[in-house]
């Protein structure tokens, strides 16, 4: 499987979607992320795997500005965003989901999607109740159609299944029309019946959208990536295409133990 390319010119854009240059994040003496350098091209699907404590989520939060890097640089489509606040990174084209569900349980699915759309628009603090033909409400319904959850719009978030919550969260992350979508363990907590639907949703994402996902589920990760990066103890220890990564001896030791 090869990385996506620019469908207009047939060539890669001049600037990568995301470039990390020797990025580190320290918490006191704990080096949660150490000297990570990655280049992710526009339209690429990248999976980041590794055991618990490998630094995957800390790396995500560093890219998004929740934990600014202690060292190194982060470039988004060629622009240095190392010191840019998190809300500005979202406006520059990053969308994300979190490892734990962050829906407003007391609101309907439609209202959750609407809040996500409205949150990146001018006048987002307005208390006026939106009309049905409000552009943000129309986009919220479009997101529901894309996520195949239109039948859930009037149901409160507390009443839907865990898999459906994940669908809503991905729809909310797409609300701002991101150029780079970052998903933190989207398959976590899903039943075997729900996982094929997630794979279908990820496969249907626009080819121009750059996708980075953290996953524990090897099957989901390999199905939805062009390149797989393996982390351990805060470092990148392996990187390859999905068909080859499982043959890497370091990866086999991490996932299967030294006996294999």
Automatic annotation (TrEMBL):
Keywords, alphabetical: ATP-binding, Nucleotide-binding, Transport
InterPro entries linked: AAA+_ATPase (IPR003593), ABC_AA/LPS_Transport (IPR051120), ABC_transporter-like_ATP-bd (IPR003439), BCA_ABC_TP_C (IPR032823), P-loop_NTPase (IPR027417)
Pfam families the record matches: ABC_tran, BCA_ABC_TP_C
A Gene Ontology BP annotation from the UniProt entry: L-alanine transport
UniProt GO cellular component terms: plasma membrane
Subcellular location: Cell inner membrane
Domain ABC transporter: residue ranges: 18-258
GO MF annotation, one: L-valine transmembrane transporter activity
Organism domain of life: Bacteria
Protein name, as recorded: Branched-chain amino acid transport system ATP-binding protein
Species: Paenochrobactrum gallinarii
């Amino acid at each position: 499987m090869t990385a996506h390319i620019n469908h207009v010119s047939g060539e890669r854009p001049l600037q990568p979607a995301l470039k990390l240059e020797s990025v580190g994040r320290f918490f006191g003496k704990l080096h949660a992320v150490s000297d990570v350098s990655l280049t992710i091209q526009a339209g690429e699907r990248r999976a980041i795997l590794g055991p618990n404590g490998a630094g995957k989520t800390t790396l995500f939060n560093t890219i998004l500005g929740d934990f600014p890097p202690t060292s190194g640089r982060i470039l988004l489509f060629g622009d240095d965003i190392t010191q840019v606040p998190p809300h500005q990174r979202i406006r520059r084209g990053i969308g994300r989901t979190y490892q734990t569900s962050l829906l407003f349980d007391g609101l309907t699915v439609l209202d959750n999607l609407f809040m996500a759309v409205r949150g990146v628009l001018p006048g987002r603090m307005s208390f006026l109740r939106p009309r049905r033909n409000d552009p943000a409400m129309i986009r919220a319904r479009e997101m529901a159609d894309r996520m195949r959850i239109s039948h859930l719009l009037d149901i409160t978030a507390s009443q839907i299944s865990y898999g459906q919550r994940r669908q809503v969260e991905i729809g909310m992350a797409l609300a701002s029309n991101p150029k780079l979508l970052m998903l933190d363990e989207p398959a976590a907590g899903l039943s075997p019946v729900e996982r094929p639907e997630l794979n279908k949703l990820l496969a249907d994402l626009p080819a121009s959208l750059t996708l980075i996902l953290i996953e524990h589920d090897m099957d989901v990760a390999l199905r939805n990536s062009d390149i797989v990066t393996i982390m351990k103890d805060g470092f990148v220890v392996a990187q390859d295409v999905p068909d080859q990564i499982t043959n890497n001896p370091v990866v086999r030791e991490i996932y299967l133990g030294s006996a294999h």
